[in-house]
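Translate structure to sequence.
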């Protein structure tokens, strides 16, 4: 058995031991593992910094988007199981954040192909949404449905 000395109590222990059997102190990690961990930590810090610096620029984007967020919250959304190569639906829930009934609400998504080109829109509207109520919508997508790769919320409007 190859042995080494415990870093804490200097006891002769198995070279592969992660813990000293005598004093229970953890033995050092291999250098390559430390390097990997440092790289991971640095990349996490870098990505956190990126997202925090990009969020203020998002807030600057047009006042309308900000207003929309205050009025409504998109609680959930997903591509409907009923979608096929001819029809695509996005279903989900939208919450009215205001203390008054809305007489009309509309949600619009923009669809894109795999290259990021805009294909069309998915739209649903409803004649009314009560104060602080939730609307279960089903937005029907038009144009190039067979090419849709991804979609994003365009706007939620209401009055
Ligand atoms: Zn020890």
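Result:
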């Amino acid at each position: 058995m190859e042995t080494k000395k415990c870093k804490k109590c200097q006891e002769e222990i198995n070279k592969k031991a992660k813990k000293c059997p005598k004093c229970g102190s953890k033995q050092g990690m291999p250098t390559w593992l430390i390097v990997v961990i440092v790289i991971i930590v640095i990349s996490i810090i870098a990505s956190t910094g990126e997202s925090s610096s990009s969020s203020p620029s998002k807030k600057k984007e047009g006042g309308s988007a900000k207003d929309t967020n205050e009025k409504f919250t998109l609680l959930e959304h997903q591509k409907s199981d009923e979608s096929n190569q001819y029809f695509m639906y996005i279903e989900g829930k939208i919450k009215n954040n205001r203390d008054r009934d809305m007489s009309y609400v509309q949600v619009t998504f923009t669809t894109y192909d795999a290259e990021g080109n805009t294909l069309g829109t998915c739209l649903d509207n409803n004649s009314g949404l009560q104060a602080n109520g939730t609307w279960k919508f089903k937005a029907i997508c038009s144009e190039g449905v067979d090419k849709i790769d991804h979609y994003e919320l365009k706007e939620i409007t209401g009055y």
